[in-house]
Amino acid sequence: MSSSTSDFWTELQANLTQILGKGEGRFVTVSPHASSITVRGMPDEIEAVRKYVKSIEGAVTRQVVIEAKLLEVTLSEDYQQGIDWSHVHSTLSLNPIQAWGGASATNTTFTQLGGGIALTFKEKGFQSVINLLQTQGDVSTLSSPRITTLNAQRAVMKIGNDRYFVTGVSTDSSTTSSSDTNLVSSNYDFSPFFSGVSLDVLPQISAEGKVMLHIHPAVIEVAEDVKKVKSQGKESEYPFATSEVRETDVIVEADSGDIIVIGGLMRHEKGNLESKIPLLGDIPWLGELFKNKTYYDRKTELVILLRPVVVGGETWKEEIKKSSDLLQKWYPEEK
Q1: Which one is predicted more confidently, 326 or 303?
Q2: What pTM does this model have?
Q3: pLDDT at 76 > cutoff 60
Q4: I need a surface site. Which of 62, 111, 212, 254 has the fewest CB within 10 A?
Q5: CA dist., res. 106 & res. 246, Å (int)
Q6: Nearest by Cα to 92 from 118, 113, 58, 119
């Protein structure tokens, strides 16, 4: 996951001190717990501080509601190379296509990047994109989170669980005083491994209402991998972890209410599925007649849909109405 560190109040005090200067009698005192600032200086310097604090306050208090859908598309035989994003581009009214990192691109970029793109388009809901994806494979929804965050404040959504696995083994040996017998003790180090879906979003909201999003989605699948370790002439088995990760990091700019689509995170699975008739399938040799083995070769693509909405005067009313409509749909009133 991406990470960053910042100290808002320390940076604010440093900036205000720079505005005032270091002349005699000038000082800045910042109290984070009381959310207060005390300044002493000349009238024109204090006026400059007031304007700066007002601009900062306006930027910091901006909020954005982020709706998200994480979809997994099991591709049909006609789209084994990935979703045909050029078809998506020609079907929907898209804004200029953006490649990883937000660089502008043309339609030829679809082939060059192997389907790895980020793009935005103006639409009221996700359903039109989902309907289009269903023409290229089976669509399943992994998660549909919705969060609210302040301007320039990171929002993290994680859905899954932590499993503990052995990450280190050490042995200590000692000799007893009454005999030459060696006593061997083993120490195990366990660490948590996250398995599931995570979405890390950092929004930057402009004064005009545009939103720049630094997006880091990841789908992590952790499985147990038993390893044999030989120590002190003795072989033991330990449950280590193996993980499969699909993630990317992209920066996209969009207007409030636009839908952002991120695709291109492919996965390829091969294997055999075995089914058998109970009891009869367990008979040695003869049981093979009562078993059925199926070979599968499956390709899937992870697609992330995001819709940032800058909070305005009517935003909360709209969000409350959406929640009320969902509750009415899930728990209809009895007539």
Answers
A1: 303
A2: 0.64
A3: yes
A4: 111
A5: 25
A6: 119
